[in-house]
Design brief:
With 571 residues, the chain is α+β, with helices and mostly antiparallel strands. Helix content is 15%, strand content 46%.
């Protein structure tokens, strides 16, 4: 069949541009929609959501506290006529005095004074000063004045055991300037250690806080564990498009800290069982020790359309060059916020070579984006916290349609040429109901200032959208996708079962230009999935979904039920 199609293609070379239009109409009639473009294909090669979740952050700060003093058994009472706080620099004396001010004028025991000192200790702990404590020093209580001594936990000795691929200088920069005599602040240490632990070339960073030799001193022992020189993952799935190949294999190879700076060189590739190939080269580098990272990437995609569009000999390519800078505004075990600025320079070309002269379309696009990514844990009152992730991306871009005839047609229809603004947001929440049961919900939405190019649109269908419809179904400028799942993890088995419902709505064109065409569409579906993860680095996920309602598939042959399969190996 393929040879016959190729023979037809060669025979069609000498036809005119008018025949090219007729061929497009015939092919579109078979497929029900216009042929995919390089922009459509580019959207389809985004990395899939892995069936094996990333491990949660582990505790980075280990505190060895001195044993608390035993409550005094003395029943002797004396009247408190004054309070004195010494040793405090983090909080004002007035603020700390207010915590124990209820003692004034009372006849109290030594145990009650110890309980009051604990209130001062609790204030420090709640503010992140984990080794600070308030004590009652040996004293002669004169005129009823009681002294509380605050030992804020100042840095004594500092040692660093760096076993990672990141050189000692960069490790010291990321740990910050830990000065002997400075007050130990756990959240500041936690931030630095979590950022260092996720740096390429390191796998984990911890610190042990131990009582020092001097009164109120704390010794810090840092340990930075090594990461792999080469890491990555292999994916195989059927999440592709009918016309460029359902079945896909992708790989990501990371070379970690090649210069000893916590930098990373990344190569990502994807191929399908049809004629689609994509490669991406990226490099990132930490700047200083604050968590700021800068990077750049270059990607190239080439495709040929098959199936109903094979007779067009349609093919195309896209190239994207990007630079970015990211900074963690907040980094902790439970709350994280990352800001990223990205500039993309994009180029797209589509060709129909079954005609003479060849019908070609060229587009260039430059996009500046600001994104905020938040993720973390929520206290549910149980042993297992809820987890969340959310992101918002504001983009400002400029589309330049380089082909005169296409630009002229666009001016009379979509008017996508020129500047545009887009706002996209996404979020998900996993809420545990018990040890084995959990609820999961996700949402995605997009708004646009005008009609967008295909590369900037949102599609409802696909393994990450309304799963009862194929990848690329119902693209549009504005829309939303909602999903809800009930998940059950089989006890003592690496298997998770889920039932889900998906729904999404789309506005095809932000500004409608064809009054006779329907400009909105709503899709919904329901199904079930099973995820098998025998190892933390290996996962297999199968999903089956059927549509709800009467909306049929338009982007390819109609099917009421759709199967999705994905496997992953992380190394």
């Amino acid at each position: 069949m393929m040879k016959r199609a190729q023979a037809m293609t060669r025979a069609l070379k000498p036809v005119t541009a008018a025949v090219a239009t007729l061929l497009c109409v015939m092919a579109a009639a078979q497929a029900q929609v216009a042929p995919p473009t390089a922009g459509d294909v580019q959207r389809s090669v985004l990395p899939p959501v892995a069936p094996v979740p990333r491990a949660a952050d582990a505790e980075a700060v280990h505190v060895q506290k001195p044993a608390p003093a035993a409550p005094s058994a003395s029943t002797m009472r004396f009247q408190v006529r004054g309070l004195k706080i010494t040793g405090a620099t983090v909080f004002s004396n007035d603020m700390l005095t207010s915590l124990v001010g209820d003692l004034m004028g009372k006849h109290v025991t030594l145990a009650e004074l110890q309980a009051a000192a604990q209130r001062i200790t609790d204030q420090y702990e709640q503010a992140g000063y984990a080794v600070a404590r308030a004590v009652l020093p040996e004293q002669d209580i004169v005129d009823g004045v009681v002294e509380f001594l605050v030992l804020e936990g100042r840095v004594g000795k500092v040692s660093i055991d760096n076993q990672s691929l990141v050189d000692d200088g960069q490790v010291r920069r990321m740990l910050g300037d830990v000065q002997v005599g400075a007050v130990v602040h756990e959240p500041s240490l936690e931030r630095r250690l979590l950022l260092l632990g996720e740096t390429p070339g390191a796998s984990r960073a911890t610190v042990n806080l131990q009582p020092g030799a001097g009164t109120g001193e704390t010794d810090l022992g840092f340990v930075v564990e090594p990461g792999a020189r080469v890491s990555g993952q292999l994916d195989a799935d059927n999440h592709g498009n009918r016309y460029t190949g359902y079945n896909r294999v992708s790989s990501t190879i990371n070379v970690n800290s090649p210069l000893g700076l916590g930098d990373q060189l990344q190569v990502r590739s994807l191929i399908t069982d049809e004629k689609l190939g994509n490669i991406r080269l990226g490099y990132r580098l930490p700047v200083g020790g604050s968590g700021l990272v800068v990077g750049t990437s270059w990607s190239m995609l080439r495709y040929e359309l098959g199936r109903e569009y094979a007779l067009l000999d349609a093919r195309g390519s896209s190239r994207i060059t990007s630079v970015f800078a990211s900074y963690p505004l907040k980094r902790s075990l439970d709350t994280n916020l990352l800001a990223t600025v990205t500039y993309d320079d994009k180029s797209f070309e589509d060709r129909i070579e079954a005609v003479a002269p060849v019908a070609s379309t060229r587009k260039d696009s430059q996009v500046l984006s600001l994104s905020l990514n938040a993720y973390g844990n929520l206290n549910t009152g149980s042993l297992t916290p809820a987890t969340y992730a959310a992101a918002a991306v504001l983009s400002r871009g400029d589309l330049d349609i380089r082909t005169a005839s296409v630009r002229s047609n666009d001016a009379a229809t979509a008017r996508s040429d020129g500047g545009f603004t887009k706002l996209a947001g996404t979020g998900n929440l996993t809420w545990p109901l018990s040890t084995n049961w959990a609820l999961f919900g996700s949402a995605y939405g997009q708004l646009a200032s005008k009609n967008l190019d295909a590369s900037e649109k949102l599609s409802l269908g696909g393994a990450s959208g309304v799963r009862a419809y194929p990848q690329g179904e119902s693209p549009g400028d504005e829309g939303y996708i909602l999903s809800g799942e009930v998940r059950y993890t089989i006890p003592l088995r690496p298997v998770q079962l889920a039932a889900f419902v998906d729904a999404g709505g789309i506005q095809i064109n932000r500004n409608a230009y064809n009054a006779s065409a329907d400009n909105k569409r709503f899709l919904s579906g329901a199904g079930a999935s099973v995820t098998w993860a025998p190892l933390p680095t290996v996962g297999l996920k199968l999903m089956v979904a059927s549509r709800l309602g009467s909306e049929k598939v338009e982007s390819e042959q109609d099917a009421a039920t759709r199967w999705w399969l994905q496997g992953l190996w992380r190394f």
